[in-house]
Amino acid sequence: MKKKIPVITIDGPSGVGKSTLSYAISNKLKWNFLESGYLYRTIAYYITKFNIPLKEKKIIPILKNIKFNFKYINNKIKVIFENKDISKKLCSEKNSIISSKIAIFPYIRKWLLYKQRKFRKFPGLVTNGRDMGTKVFSDALIKIFLITKIKERAKRRCLELKSNGFNINFNFLLKKMKERDNRDKNRIICPLKPDKNAIIIDSTNMNFKNTLQIMLKYIYKKLKNINNKT
Ligand code: DC
To answer: Is the CB of 129 inside a 6 Å radius of any atom of ligand 1?
Structure first.
């Protein structure tokens, strides 16, 4: 029987630290990495750049022109568009909101489903997003769902935005994050929720190092059990 390529999914809302944690895990395991939010963010960027209305019918024709060009340099994602680094622009709060708004469109999700599945390559894939465990890689070997109290998430997101050159009012950001959470959790297709097999980790009172340790302990245990069985 053909051996399935193992996948680890790390889902959760914005600001839980899933990007840095999942990237660190992919480095440790030397597995491939996919930050699925950047696919939505790239589409959102095109929509703004070419003044396309937020209507699925208007977006579908431009999808074929979108190129996803991600690189990882010094542990940071770099997204290149027309030879320019647009990574910081993709992180802006405005782009986050548009990404979440287009994420409700069924055709776009289906189109991205195939793109995301192509990242499943040997020796394995670590990926993060909203529906990676419930839909995109529902057969994943390990599923983790990260949660953190909203105020802590907003604090972390504020710092992240600042480090990318965006100064944003904390209360405004908190309000926008709550709205985005609600949109991501309550959409009809692939809403943000833990899969029934996911382990839930609350990182509210933990720093990056502690959270990473807990996740790795769980992952290594699972991988050992599986290797012992095969
Ligand atoms: O993970 P992120 O914050 O970069 O994602 C930006 C938006 O993209 C998020 O608010 C909803 C959408 N998204 C999604 O619907 N499904 C995913 N797997 C990843 C992101």
So the answer is: yes
CATH of the domain at 96: 3.40.50.300
What is the CA(51)–ligand 1 centre distance, in A?
Answer: 21
CB 215 within 8 A of CB 21: yes
- 197's tokens: 């097999």
pLDDT digit string, tens, across residues 33-90: 999 999 999 999 999 999 999 999 999 999 999 988 888 887 778 898 888 899 999 9
Residue 75 resides in a domain: yes
Report which protein residue has its CA nearest ligand 1's atom 13. Answer: 37
Tens digit of each residue's pLDDT (9 = 90 or more) over 149-173: 999 999 999 998 998 889 999 999 9
Query: 216 CA distance to ligand 1 centroid (A)?
Result: 24
**Domain tally for the chain?**
1
Give me ligand 1 centre to Cα 97, in Å: 10
Within a domain: residue 28? Answer: yes
- Write out the residue range of the structural domain in which residue 130 sits: 7-223
